[in-house]
Amino acid sequence: MATRVYIGRLSYRASERDIEHFFRGYGRIRDIVLKNGFGFV
Fold it and tell me: Domain-by-domain residue ranges, the chain?
């Protein structure tokens, strides 16, 4: 079962690599979608 997590108030300079590094300890990351100031993992 896949779950998508909303991440708000991100820096506009946050990269997919930054997000992957932060969340990798919680399990396998299937997809990262970044927009201006927010994203989904």
Answer: 6-40
